[in-house]
Design brief:
By secondary structure, the chain is α/β, with parallel strands linked by helices. It has 2 domains: about 1-15 and about 245-435, UDP-n-acetylglucosamine1-carboxyvinyl-transferase, Chain (Alpha-beta prism); about 20-235, Enolpyruvate transferase domain (UDP-n-acetylglucosamine1-carboxyvinyl-transferase, Chain), CATH 3.65.10.10. It contains 12 helices and 24 strands. The chain has helices spanning about 20-30, 45-55, 90-100, 120-130, 165-175, 190-205, 245-260, 280-285, 320-325, 350-360, 390-400, 420-425, and strands at about 1-5, 10-15, 35-40, 60-65, 70, 85, 105-110, 135, 145-150, 155-160, 180-185, 210, 225-230, 240, 265, 290-295, 295-300, 310, 330-335, 360-365, 370-375, 380, 405, 430-435. The strands form 6 sheets. The chain has a 4-stranded mixed β-sheet. Strand 6, helix 3 (about 90-100) and strand 7 form a beta-alpha-beta unit.
Length: about 425
């Protein structure tokens, strides 16, 4: 499937769908809890459905028949799956469920699509082995397929978190259920807002975690090593909770408004939420867009943009959309300190340089990011590389250009944002799906 995009003037308001990150954490906690939880307004997309199915195989009883998701949990005792767990394209599900499977007194096998089978997991594999499980990559390369034999006991581990914060999130969510205490010494911890999101969920559950340095305190944001002490023998309880809107999905609408001199109101966003990508509206404001907080969301008004330097260590998913935005900004924009963007569904640094170059961008690839100078882009046929965020970012570029932009592999939008085209059209975008 491909997207066909033409120059558009946007206006109006759009309700942003639920957060993928929150939805998956809700599925995990509800599945491990005692009793039946209600997850309201979940994101229904391939990634979240992968988590839904993975935890069904681990013994939870999920039901999504009435819009909300009802999940009867396993009371801290996941079961040996009846089949291989295929996480599809969901790296979050893979990493978190690996540690859930390590709670099982038995064997679990994980696989995923071709992109997942290129995602590194060795640091987490090593950590689970140190905690008492027996975990191995079937190909010996630290990637899926992965076999997990539990159960873990607890203990002390050192964990290199330079590639993703999800290794820590996996242990934070699962080690409270281990029979012994766990201490995690996390080096090179990136994407800290996602850790804060996990800790917020744990706090709401009454789970005890001792974090040094404390989140938000001195040392938390300066790259210092972090220590997490996780008492064992804890438990989760059933809950009833609505999922906040997704700031990562909102990024594409915010950037589209900024580069087309349009005004869009993005509804459902909580500026106090822990999601890291809420920083994008601050970045756009710094570039010259007008950003206003309104009841139940934010309003973005485009204007004359100027280049800036942004550290994306905590917001790697913003790189594709911000790279497009930078092409329309006067001067030079630097997107830096985000080498982990090379380890997502694609090498997003290389892919965005490649595809924007086809459109005429003055763009330079760094080891840890991109340098983009104001460019006169032209509509072209470009490759989406089956990466949902790359596809959406290139569609945003097409909305601002004369002529017709076509983007391949658009079926990958189902991974996190299956309603992207529908919602873009609702605010005036001239965008179509074609086979």
């Amino acid at each position: 499937m491909k997207l066909v995009v033409r120059k558009s003037k946007l206006s109006g308001s759009v309700r942003i769908p639920g957060s993928k990150s929150h939805t998956i954490r809700a599925v995990v906690i509800a599945s491990l809890a005692e009793g039946t939880s209600r997850v309201r307004e979940p994101l229904v997309a391939s990634d979240t459905l992968s988590a839904f199915e993975a935890y069904r195989l681990l013994g939870a009883e999920p039901d999504g028949s009435d819009g909300d998701w009802l999940i009867r949990g396993v009371a801290g005792r996941p079961a040996v799956p009846e089949n291989v767990i295929d996480v599809g394209n969901s790296g979050t599900t893979l990493y978190i469920a690996l540690a859930s499977a390590a709670l099982v007194d038995g064997t679990t096998v994980f696989t995923g699509d071709d992109q997942i089978r290129r995602r590194p997991a060795q640091p987490l594999i090593d950590a689970l082995n140190a905690l008492g499980a027996k975990v191995e990559s079937t190909r010996g390369n630290g990637m899926a397929p992965i076999v997990v034999r539990g159960p873990i006991r607890g203990g002390a581990v050192e964990l290199d978190c330079s590639k993703t914060s999800q290794y820590v999130t996996s242990l934070l969510l699962n080690c409270p259920l281990a029979p012994r205490d766990t201490v995690v010494e996390a080096e090179n911890l990136i994407e800290k807002p996602y850790i804060e999101m996990t800790l917020r969920w744990l706090e709401e559950q009454g789970i005890e975690i001792e974090v040094t340095p404390s989140p938000g305190g001195k040392g938390w944001a300066d790259g210092a090593p972090c220590r997490f002490r996780i008492p064992g023998r804890q438990s989760y309880h059933a809950f009833d909770k609505a999922i906040p809107a997704d700031w990562s999905s909102a990024t594409f609408f915010a950037c589209a408004a900024a580069i087309t001199n349009s005004e869009l109101t993005l509804v459902g966003l909580d500026v106090n939420d822990t999601q890291g990508d809420k920083a994008v509206v601050r970045m756009l404001s710094q570039m010259g867009a007008k950003v206003e907080q309104v009841p139940d969301g934010v309003r973005i008004t485009g204007g004359s943009l100027k280049g800036c330097e942004f550290d994306l260590a905590d917001t790697p998913d913003a790189l594709p959309a911000m790279a497009v935005t930078a092409c329309f900004a006067e001067g030079e924009t630097r997107l830096v300190n985000v080498p982990q963007a090379r380890l997502k569904e694609t090498d997003r640094i290389a892919v965005m340089r490649e595809e924007l170059s086809k459109m005429g961008a003055d763009i330079e690839e760094l080891a840890d990011g991109l340098v983009i100078r104001q460019s006169r882009l032209e509509a072209r046929s470009v490759h989406g590389h089956a990466d949902h965020r790359v596809i959406m970012a290139l569609a945003v570029a097409g909305i601002a250009l004369d002529g017709e932009t076509t983007i391949s592999t658009a079926e990958a939008l189902s991974v996190t944002f299956p309603t992207f085209v529908e919602l873009m059209r609702s605010v005036g975008a001239r965008i179509e799906c074609e086979q």
